Write the structure tokens for this entry.
Amino acid sequence: MATVVIRTQTPAERPLALHWRRVRRLPWLPVILLAPVVICGIFGSLLFPHDPTTIDLLAPRKPPAWMDGGSWQYVLGTDQFGRDLLSRLMEGARVALIVAISSVFLAALIGVTAGMVAGYYGGIIDNVIMRIADVVFAIPAILLIILIGGAVGGGFLTVLSSIVIVSWVLYARVVRGETLVLRERGFVALAKVANCSDTRILLRHILPNLMPTCIVLMTLQAGFALLIEAAITFIGLGIQPPATTWGLLISEGRPYMTTAWWIPTFAGLAITITVLGTNLLGDWLQEKFDPRRQQR
């Protein structure tokens, strides 16, 4: 006759098991993918193996260290002017981090404000804001960015303003829909009975309920901002030399794709990994903040 042994956890083991379960649920893959970008963006100037702008005409298009002709002095090789590619990628991470954070923050500030005002007040204010959003949304993002870049020229401000103009619409449309629902809730009615001002209701009662959605949108839009920056820099309307960006590395390395493939390839991999990390982090945050997905 078989004997079944059932082992129960001791009181000391239960906190450890609970802690381990929480650790396993953390977004480790997005953190691993995004950690190099964040570290290089913040501490890049302290970690450069070489000056990203130093030209070495004796070592142009030097292959990576593991290839024939490569050197561990230049781990990922050099570009057409002999500049260290690893240092330039790290410098590009700093620019990418600045562009992503600043553009996402400004777009969220404009879009969330417009969406809350449109959803809370309704009427003609709602119609005006949403019609402006519809016009911007109807124009393809790349075409709108090309028009802006052609009108005002390239540069960091052009990149920043272009991303903000094409991104705020998404925040406004999503936030407006949720605000329409929240303004009918009981706590808003009680705030009105308590004679709270509209500004206080929007900032103290409605905005906190919108924060999970806003955080998810900001995370997802960070990857979109990186793609936009790389695209407009690639066509020559974005950040200009001697600055270093991943899009500029791809643009400068395109003529050498057959002879020095490492120049554009590593920059393209950096963009791909970073965008993938932001999208995975956004999916994790959406699952974290959405009770319906948690139940499933």
